[in-house]
Design brief:
This protein is of the alpha/beta class. The chain has eleven helices and nine strands. The protein has a single domain (about 15-280), classed as Rossmann fold, CATH 3.40.50. It has helices at about 30-35, 40-60, 65-75, 80-85, 90-105, 125-130, 145-155, 195-210, 240-245, 255-260, 275-280, and strands at about 115, 135-140, 165-170, 180-185, 210-220, 230, 235, 250-255, 265-275. The termini are far apart.
């Protein structure tokens, strides 16, 4: 059985707990240490390991179908826990607020257009929708179960008049979206659950939908040691791997140091279209700042 200290998906940590980038959660030593420290979490891990074995039989070659089934299973247990570790509504709201405040500090204004990849049940999306002009928020997700829960959030928050778009996606080619549309593309706790080919697909296409001057922010589980995954749900990448992957698709990526100060275990990167790549494809270069 594999144990991971961030399972099932995401945790809020104190700054002092952000000690994990070099740990490999797949090693037996790590798993034993973790089980001894947190015996109460062992049954949940056992359940996840059994689910992983079962789902891998059906979806071995299709990560999206696999993860969609994970989300169906998690959402049926608790919508809040499906998008974050802690099932409490308070933590759910806190994580959403952290994402929202960060982007507002970085210049998100009501007239901007935003695409949220992996919008979940609008933990942060509800705040973005409220902040942005009507029709300026577009959320996509691979899970129909969580998108239904997102509609419940919209109703609960009385946000119908903002007419946000919510769409089911099967891949990250973003093919159904227009060119140069979005000032901000945001993906929180999505690449932490994505194998490399899914991230690369996103990098190959996100530049097309970014408006001039726009940026794409995503969080990921960072390791400074060996890259690894746990139970095909949690993926750990080195920063330089993602920088190099982005560069292959004409994008610049950098670690957001000010996010590291916040009480959250994942790291955040910002991607912009490289000015040389932008001048090949478009008239305006992307500077990475909003106006
Ligand atoms: C941990 S939840 C986070 C949800 C939301 N971003 C938030 O912060 O509350 C991850 C979400 O990403 C979705 N997801 C995972 N892989 C995806 C992909 N390749 N494309 C779009 N959505 C994806 C999942 O269905 C889930 O709703």
């Amino acid at each position: 059985m594999l144990l991971t200290c961030s399972s099932p998906v995401e945790v809020v940590v104190g700054a002092a707990d952000r000690s994990g980038p070099s740990r490999n959660r797949r090693t037996l030593a790590h798993q034993v240490r973790y089980a001894v420290r947190h015996p109460e979490r062992v049954p949940a891990h056992a359940r996840r390991a059994a689910r992983d074995a079962w789902l891998r039989l059906r979806y071995r070659h299709d990560h999206i179908a696999y993860y969609r089934a994970v989300m169906a299973s998690d959402t049926a247990r608790s919508v809040e826990a499906a998008v974050g570790h802690n099932p409490s509504r308070e933590r759910w709201a806190q994580l959403g607020r952290m994402q929202f405040d960060y982007l507002v500090r970085h210049g998100l204004r009501p007239h901007h257009r935003m695409l949220e990849i992996g919008c979940g049940n609008l933990r942060a999306g509800r705040l973005f929708i409220d902040h942005l002009d009507s029709g300026h928020y577009y959320g996509i997700d691979i899970s129909p179960d969580i998108l239904l829960a997102a509609q419940d959030t919209l109703v609960g928050e009385g946000l119908q008049s903002k007419v946000p778009y919510l769409a089911l996606a099967d891949d990250l080619t973003l093919a159904f979206l227009p060119d140069a549309r979005f000032d901000v593309v945001h993906a929180h706790s999505v690449f932490s659950h994505s194998p490399r080919h899914v991230i690369e697909e996103c990098f190959a296409h996100v530049g097309r939908v970014l408006a001039p001057g726009g940026f794409f922010d995503f969080t990921f589980d960072r390791t400074e040691g060996r890259e690894h995954q746990v139970l095909h749900e949690d993926f750990y990448y080195r920063t330089e791997t993602l920088v190099a992957l982005a560069a292959r698709h004409g994008l610049s990526a950098r670690l957001m140091e000010d996010w590291e100060e916040l009480p959250h275990r994942q790291s955040k990167m910002r991607v912009t279209v490289r000015s040389d790549a932008a001048s090949e494809g478009r008239s305006e270069a992307h500077g990475g700042s909003l106006q």
